[in-house]
Amino acid sequence: MSTLLDKIWDRHTVHRGAGGTDLLYVDFHLLHEGSSPQAFEGLRLAGRTVRRPDLTLATEDHVVPTRGLLGRSGVAATMVEALRRNCEEFDVPLRRSGTDGQGIVHVIGPELGITQPGRLILCGDSHTSTHGAFGALAFGIGTSQVEHVLATQTAAFAKPKAMAVTLHGDLPEGVSAKDVALAVIGRIGTGGAQGHVIEYRGPAVEAMSMESRLTLCNMSIEAGAKAGMVAPDAVTAEYLHDRPYAPVGRDWDEAVASWATLRTDDEAEFDRRVDIDVTALSPFVSWGTNPSQVVELSGVVPDPAAAPDPALRDAAERALTYMDLTPGTPMREIPVDVVFLGSCTNGRIEDLRAAAGLLDGHRIASGVRMLVVPGSAAVKYAAESEGLDEVFRSAGAEWRTAGCSLCVAMNDDSLAPGERCASTSNRNFEGRQGRGGRTHLVSPTTAAATALTGRLTAPSDLGARR
Ligand SMILES: CC(C)[C@H](C(=O)O)[C@@H](O)C(=O)O
Ligand code: SF4
């Protein structure tokens, strides 16, 4: 009896190492400018080539500007230039910024149909867990492993344990996969899934769109998991059909038939199980400086004294100092300066639609700056063809080109010290959005509702106010 993890692991194992480390075949390798330069340099020094450029794809996402063109000088230009030179020299296909098909690596993989059920997908980036939404095994690797994959199309790992996170019930209106992800991390902690691959299961997962599943799997890494996954089903196949890298004709039929075997057997044992009833969930928001420091938006800033152990109490105290928050303050009373809608967590078309649905015909609060950054060029075009860009602009938000943007202060977008931001991204670490910047992780609709009122606001709070 095997779990989905066992099945994919076994199919990819080319050598079982003595010390419990297996050598796995890699189906697809994604690259970006942030984590690939040393790997290419290593190849060059060793006189090696890229073994399977056809199973490799690079994109420019972390450092690219999302307003205007890439400059000719500066750190970003140097990093992007290095990636372009490396891709050219090693024959690796590259999605350049400013062209079709470019975007955040975890947005374009699924969009192009590269991310397929049963595949092993690696990338030098922690949020590679995103791709598990398709029933792929996908995780982040370090630079030396990137070099190894480039040279050999294989990588060595110790097999992680399997953890089931089962979501029971139906998600209430206005509560999204992002809220579920924050609720899960709030429950199990940032180390709660350490050493495990999470398989999300249950009726609430089956009812989710691919994009919601991507959001859920994206955040797995924030619970310490190696990866997140969802068994493929009809929703998965429907999403992939006709995508540029998806199989066609007979190959498609065979692929779909083989995907049906990619499920955990009924009697298979998980190393750990967590059950969550989503029926009573409401929107979540982070108050602290790691993604487990969350509360329901209807709640208050917690008192560190109530933390269950001294380590958590210290962490909470430090976080509240950094965040400049006082225990007992209702979350709904916390004002924000900036709202960020985007990232590989929530920068897809459904996220933009959901936020635009609330903003349509309204203006964001004065004094609030809102950045809307599509996760890919394709998301941007799709949004523009639906008129969403107009909705955002008319509401007073900035409409940008694709990139990581304010998710990470590695590009032109950052918070000023002390600025407070409601952000649809996945990390609220100190300085993540800029030195001294304060991040509250939220869902796209909470971000939109917050932009309208200027204070942390759940979508359902808006009714009474307008
Ligand atoms: C820069 C990159 C390697 C990093 C990651 O590994 O995740 C980034 O994408 C992030 O989200 O922190
Ligand atoms: S959007 Fe954020 S989390 Fe995603 S890859 Fe870029 S920096 Fe990392």
Automatic annotation (TrEMBL):
Enzyme Commission no: 4.2.1.33
Q: Where is this region: Disordered?
A: 426-445
One of its Pfam families is Aconitase
Q: Which cofactor does it need?
A: [4Fe-4S] cluster
InterPro entries tied to this protein: 3-IsopropMal_deHydase_lsu (IPR004430), Acnase/IPM_dHydase_lsu_aba_1/3 (IPR015931), Acoase/IPM_deHydtase_lsu_aba (IPR001030), Aconitase_4Fe-4S_BS (IPR018136), Aconitase_4Fe-4S_dom (IPR036008), IPM_dehydratase_rel_enz (IPR050067), IPMI_cat (IPR033941)
Instruction: Locate the residues binding [4Fe-4S] cluster.
Output: C344, C404, C407
Q: Where is the Aconitase/3-isopropylmalate dehydratase large subunit alpha/beta/alpha domain?
A: 6-454
GO: which molecular function terms?
3-isopropylmalate dehydratase activity
Which reactions fall under this protein's catalytic activity?
(2R,3S)-3-isopropylmalate = (2S)-2-isopropylmalate
Q: Under which pathway is this protein filed?
A: Amino-acid biosynthesis; L-leucine biosynthesis; L-leucine from 3-methyl-2-oxobutanoate: step 2/4
The note on the cofactor says: Binds 1 [4Fe-4S] cluster per subunit.
Keyword Iron-sulfur carried by entry: yes
**What are the protein's UniProt keywords?**
4Fe-4S, Amino-acid biosynthesis, Branched-chain amino acid biosynthesis, Iron, Iron-sulfur, Leucine biosynthesis, Lyase, Metal-binding
Please explain the role this protein plays, according to its UniProt record: Catalyzes the isomerization between 2-isopropylmalate and 3-isopropylmalate, via the formation of 2-isopropylmaleate.
What does the similarity note say? Answer: Belongs to the aconitase/IPM isomerase family. LeuC type 1 subfamily.
For this protein, the record's PANTHER family field holds: 3-ISOPROPYLMALATE DEHYDRATASE, HOMOACONITASE, MITOCHONDRIAL-RELATED
User: What HAMAP family has UniProt attached to this entry?
Assistant: LeuC_type1
* Known partners and oligomeric status: Heterodimer of LeuC and LeuD.
Q: What is this protein called?
A: 3-isopropylmalate dehydratase large subunit
Q: Which organism is it from?
A: Actinomycetospora atypica
Q: What broad taxonomic lineage does this protein's source fall under?
A: Bacteria, Bacillati, Actinomycetota, Actinomycetes, Pseudonocardiales
